[in-house]
Automatic annotation (TrEMBL):
It is an enzyme of class 2 (transferase). InterPro entries: Ac/SucOrn_transaminase_bac, AcOrn/SuccOrn_fam, Aminotrans_3, Aminotrans_3_PPA_site, Class-III_PLP-dep_AT, PyrdxlP-dep_Trfase, PyrdxlP-dep_Trfase_major, PyrdxlP-dep_Trfase_small. It comes from Acinetobacter calcoaceticus DSM 30006 = CIP 81.8. Its cofactor is pyridoxal 5'-phosphate. It comes from the Bacteria. This is Acetylornithine aminotransferase. N(2)-acetyl-L-ornithine binds at R143, T282. CDD domains: OAT_like. Its EC number is 2.6.1.11. Pathway: Amino-acid biosynthesis; L-arginine biosynthesis; N(2)-acetyl-L-ornithine from L-glutamate: step 4/4. Binds 1 pyridoxal phosphate per subunit.
Amino acid sequence: MEKPISVTRSNFNDWMVPVFAPANFIPVRGEGSRIWDQENKEYIDFAGGIAVNALGHAHPVAVNALTEQAKKLWHVGNGYTNEPVLRLAKQLTENTFADKVFFCNSGAEANEAALKLARKVGLDSGVAGKSGIVAFKNAFHGRTLFTVSAGGQPKYSQDFAPLPNGINHVAFNDLDAAKAVINEQTCAVIVEPIQGEGGVIPADIEFLKGLRALCDEFGALLIFDEVQTGVGRTGSLYAYMNTGVIPDVLTTAKALGGGFPVGAMLTTDKFALHFSVGTHGTTYGGNPLASAVAGAVFEFINTPEVLEGVKHRHQYFLDALNTLNAEHQIFEEIRGQGLLIGCVLQAEYAGKAKDITTWAGEEGLLALIAGPDVVRFTPSLIIPEQDIDEGIARLKRALAKLAK
Ligand SMILES: *Cc1c(COP(=O)(O)O)cnc(C)c1O
């Protein structure tokens, strides 16, 4: 085999469209919750590829599913169905409220499908102008024009005007504000059970119950964006299961493929049947390779042991973070569920989250931000306790740079 082309971090600036500012090292290999860079420096992974690598890196269950399927059939296109996608659809429908699944490749595409479905259901209702979408400030739903417009952070959408219209944003966790804008013309309400990118902010249960009631009253679809909270992240298979509220549509991606790109929109028969042949589609969605990996990852995660393990690790993480914080008083609040944890910086450290993740990298730790003031951790759902300990020790060294 020919020697691979040698590349460095500075080549990113040479050849890549500059929408990212990646760390100054290049990861090349991973195992469990540890990765190594080009210099063979080791890192503990508290980022999990942004809540994606649910089983860590190179987990044998995922590797076997991928390599076995790779020898059989990669792709056929949706003129043919395939066995892995049907198995995955069975798993998802048997274990959730849903009867039907639409597969795609990302969270944005899953939300795009959900919003299009809601518009179609609204149209079919015969109620004039039933196309309004209610969404929340600070929300994140993806980067397609429709989903970025549904998201509640104008800085991500305003440069791309004209935007799709009919989307109304109100304050998150403010039921009265939602009540004021939900009416007969509303076709959907889209909400994250925990705002992830927006700062790891859990929705109040009463807020979600109130949205459910309003959607029922006005015949609007309640869409739960579980792209970040899904597939065991909170210690339940899906976060809605912790709330007593059942959505009409649920979107899932990130952890679903454990690192292989895949997304899905789940819904009930009642709504799914508003889509018919040709109303929506995809080339790659439900591809055998993605579906085989997702099926294996889903089966592994959807067990009492793994889900209980997430809850246990949550407490373990929180205890360690609280101990650290008792000493250093850096975080004003530590919040989240399961292994979606946000550490809100004290006012005096406002805006320093990004610096902290940079220093964490120097100390051998991958961590995330969720806005300028929140350090976020979304590690593997099966991260060993000793890796949590070691990661926290490295975090402590990184935080020491904050004082300076
Ligand atoms: C990451 C995320 C998305 C977008 O997913 P992509 O796979 O990046 O398109 C949508 N919604 C939520 C809640 C997310 O966390």
